[in-house]
């Protein structure tokens, strides 16, 4: 066995082999894969082998498309067969909500270049004759759907990697991973120790145990999963004898997927009475075993399947495959550099390995070799979960994700498992005021406040929900009087030290403010992509506060530590510093009533340290609502005292609480972008308009400067714009295609209803050449075309006189 290597990949399933292959494809040939048994041991060997592109996240869908197209390439490179069957697939809709979801997905696919289409029940019956279409409204057909041979495909990845110079060691169990002072790793195995610059955890069912060797908790859990292969089915035999193949059929109502297997059928279930497996750890001697058959838990699923696919009822059972595979709490993989670790990478929780494994391997290899990925990978970035996550949280969320695998996914849905978990001292107060809660990064956040006999639950919908009236009330309170909103869902960082300003100048593209002022700035990757949207507040020459997305804490923290300079100290104070924003025409009067210090001369973008009531606070004259407003921060133990004085003095001035539903409406009035919607690593500063905050005048070679300057000189190809949309009761959510002259020319990033202007608004990208005031386009929402017009004047306070006055 080798004693040194650039990369040690731990785990020989389809994901580990994909990572190994892609590393060689990108030029790293000194790489080794360590597998404790044979390749495919664990989950890979017993996988059903299906693949599809359908995914709620567009980047994940694109990577699934890449994975599927890669298989032909692997066959050409290796001369091996992956056992490909590109038979196409149909996802059924038995009610309007499911059909709406499929139409929304089809719309997304238009600008992604995926050739899916909506099909009628009659077309479904013709295309997939084993299906009983009674009660079916329609379906989504994807020609890329199919299935393959799991073992053959994994070995094709492995051979392609070997051809690129990689080494694979089977029957080589990893026992320890010990990091040296220089950041490299000693990987101790039962065959000896290998010294690796980088370690990749692709441990699959054993990813938790492999992570524990390095002191890392990976939030994933194995679940039992069962599918059945039948004896010959006459209808399928007839199709084969005629030279055809039956397509896949996904039946969300029955929580099942079905495909042809030989001359019979294979059907698997995501049943409600599901079972987590290996709760306290995966046995090391588990590998090519299966679990005991458990027909009881799929009894109802089978009964439903007999009605949907009548041919099953008379088909004999050839075999039952019942084995475990892993999920993360939201069902997406855990990929990327592990926050807080050096040279330790994750490629875990890839539950759909044959749909996603190629994309996971490509993204991780790009990350390792080139320093960043070609697209936004946050949906599968292991940094989307922070150090707050625990096994006690992970397990119920994984169970919930398994149970909702085929459920309708609504844009406003708040899933209930493992909640409430993390709360602030305001939780009980807001609960008593009628708060309807959402969750971000494990933290409870008020979405809106129900009044009177309004339900304390927001109905999931693709259309305007029962939160609509409450959001309108809260918007009116902000615009006409004053609203108050907690600041707990901001990521907050304290930067101190003699070199703090110099470091901020290098890591941020914008201007670092003077003492007593704040600035807005993008944070860029080396390629000029947006990786952060920050507010910098200068409290003194050696102390700054940064605020950004709460849900991106681990993502940003990883970047800070990677680029930290000597003489700089940084603390994540997101959960130790909180506070409130107050906004509206009466906001100044409320704040002045709460402090003895004169704030009449406090200008827009000023920051001061004030005593507000009994609390020592950092007060910023800025508000995401686009109104006259202040952000007031204090330490967590002072939070309720700060609330008490603000609420008491605010009552005579019409103060009302407002939540995130109102906030998202208010920001549309000013066309303010939102992180991971308008601003993400998929986009650049010039495309989104954030280039106006880049300080090209400063001498610092800030990260991403060369790329930003090149784009400034050449100009972007597309531009983020605002549109007023003519709709009935369904607003833009995200990724709806924008049509011009019968062609898709762009897509939406987000949208919603402006309660202040009483208009439906969409934000989205179109080619620069089309960006003209009054441009008339159509936006496809839930399968219908809606007229829209490009607008540039903000719907509220267009000249900024109230916000800045």
Automatic annotation (TrEMBL):
Domain Aminomethyltransferase C-terminal: 718-797
Gene Ontology terms: cellular component: cytoplasm
Keywords: Oxidoreductase
GO MF term (any one): dimethylglycine dehydrogenase activity
Pfam families: DAO, FAO_M, GCV_T, GCV_T_C
Domain FAD dependent oxidoreductase span(s) in chain numbering: 6-367
Natural source organism: Parasedimentitalea huanghaiensis
Domain FAD dependent oxidoreductase central intervals: 370-423
UniProt name for this protein: FAD-dependent oxidoreductase
PANTHER family documented for this protein: DIMETHYLGLYCINE DEHYDROGENASE, MITOCHONDRIAL, SARCOSINE DEHYDROGENASE-RELATED
Gene3D superfamilies registered for this protein in UniProt: Aminomethyltransferase beta-barrel domains, D-Amino Acid Oxidase, subunit A, domain 2, FAD/NAD(P)-binding domain, Probable tRNA modification gtpase trme, domain 1
Domain of life: Bacteria
